[in-house]
Amino acid sequence: MNGFYKFMKDRYGADGLSWGLLGLSVILIAIVWLLDIWFLCLLPIIPAAFAIFRTFSRNIPARRRERAFFAGMGDNLALTKNKFRDRKTHIYFKCARCGTVLRIPRNIGVKKVTCPRCKSVSEKDTGSAAN
Ligand SMILES: [Zn+2]
After folding, report:
1. Fewest C-beta atoms under 10 Å: which of 14, 49, 94, 130?
2. What is the pLDDT of residue 131?
3. Is 91 in a helix, a strand, or coil?
4. How far is the CA of 113 from the centre of ligand 1 (A)?
5. Each residue of 13-23: pLDDT tens digit?
């Protein structure tokens, strides 16, 4: 165990992205197996090899940049999902000063909005208050 600890000491190790890549590999194996497309049988190796490469990599800043990039993609995906879920009840828009995404209810007339991050105040037309 001490030898393995020494081996891994300067290496990046496993993170959520590596586990996600391994999960993608398992899904690809299942797809190749279920759909009987054996000419693609080497495809699941690509994400698995990348996950193993990342885990044992010594270039920690590069691995952190990759993780941050994919975490940003996940945030965008969650925001898109929430925008779709709230499309009939809320308006999403960016703060003109700092770019923070803000959410306010629809159809309450012109509303003064204070950004929780930069405290700038702006007015937003949310649609008719009569509805
Ligand atoms: Zn702001």
Report:
1. 130
2. 47
3. strand
4. 10
5. 999 999 999 99
Task: Say how far apart CA 73 and CA 80 lie, in whole Å.
Answer: 11
Which residues is 102 bridged to in the sheet?
93
CA 12 to ligand 1 center in whole angstroms: 35
* 27-42 pLDDT, tens digit each: 999 999 999 988 888 9
Q: What is the mean pLDDT of the chain?
A: 92
What pTM did the predictor assign? 0.62
- 101 Cα–ligand 1 center, Å: 8
CA 103 / ligand 1 centre spacing (Å): 12
86-120: b (≥16 Cβ within 10 Å) or e:
eeeeebeeebeeeeeebeeeeeeeeeebebeeeee
Taking the centre of ligand 1 as the mean of its atom positions, its distance from the CA of residue 71, in whole angstroms, is 22
Helix (H, G, I), strand (E, B) or coil at 98: coil
Q: Say how many Å lie between the CA of residue 2 and the centre of ligand 1.
A: 50
